[in-house]
Design a protein that fits this description.
Elements (H helix, E strand, L loop, with lengths): L10 H37 L3 H47 L1 H13 L5 H25 L9 H25 L5 H24 L3 H25 L1
Length: 233
């Protein structure tokens, strides 16, 4: 006699996935905020010594970057949400038109994890009886029924992080004494992009050292290029 199979808990997993998506948006927003603002600051500061002009240019770019990143994240996650809804609708249709195929997909999921075919079939029967749609979309796509990515969370995270990231170079360039504004800005940018590289690697299970070095190199190149552009103006 088969023991009762408890449905796998997906709430925590899905919550973690949504949090990871929000954190990803935040890290990318912070990185873009740092690099776009320092790029504008270096271009303008290389072309003029007027501190007010430098500040206004940096602040304008900070706000533009923050809202641009937020709108981009909202559009991207909204598209993901629409795709998830389409998948759920298709699986709902398949449960009506091809229940045997859906059962086989669930059974195959457990067979791939080391369960015997007979037991996997029994598990599939029980889970499909309790929550057919929820089971199918979980095993086939890792989704949770009636729970989708929220584009507003990603947009807000991107907005706040991009603005926060841009504050570091803006503050260093406009608050530090004129004689120190260049080295102060460089010193503000390098640790900031190192941190975003570290966080992005952690979130993506990548190589931390490589991500940090890559971000620092990109940051230095960004500053050099924009300084050169400012010199030509």
């Amino acid at each position: 006699m088969m023991k009762t199979i408890n449905k796998p808990k997906t709430k925590d997993k899905q919550t973690m996935a949504e949090r990871a998506n929000t954190l990803r948006a935040g890290v990318l927003g912070a990185n873009d905020g740092i690099l776009t603002v320092v790029g504008v600051l270096f271009s303008v500061a290389a072309a003029t010594t007027n501190q007010f002009t430098i500040f206004i240019a940096g602040l304008s770019d900070l706000l533009a970057c923050a809202f641009s990143m937020a709108s981009g994240e909202y559009a991207s996650v909204s598209s993901q949400k629409d795709t998830e809804k389409a998948v759920v609708a298709e699986e709902s249709r398949l449960l009506e038109t091809d229940p045997a195929g859906e059962k086989q997909a669930v059974a195959d999921y457990y067979v791939a994890r080391g369960v015997t075919a007979e037991t996997a079939g029994q598990i599939a029967d029980q889970l499909l009886h309790e929550d057919a749609l929820g089971t199918v979309i979980r095993v086939k796509y890792g989704l949770k029924k009636d729970h989708y990515m929220n584009p507003w969370y990603a947009a807000f995270a991107s907005l706040v992080s991009a603005a926060s990231g841009g504050i570091f170079p803006l503050f260093a360039m406009t608050v530090a004494p004129v004689a120190w504004q260049w080295p102060a800005t460089i010193l503000a940018v390098i640790p900031s992009v190192s941190l975003t590289g570290y966080l992005s690697a952690k979130l993506g299970n990548g190589l931390v050292k490589n991500a940090m070095i890559r971000n620092v190199v990109v940051g230095i190149i960004t500053m050099i290029i924009h300084y050169g552009i400012g010199q030509l103006m």
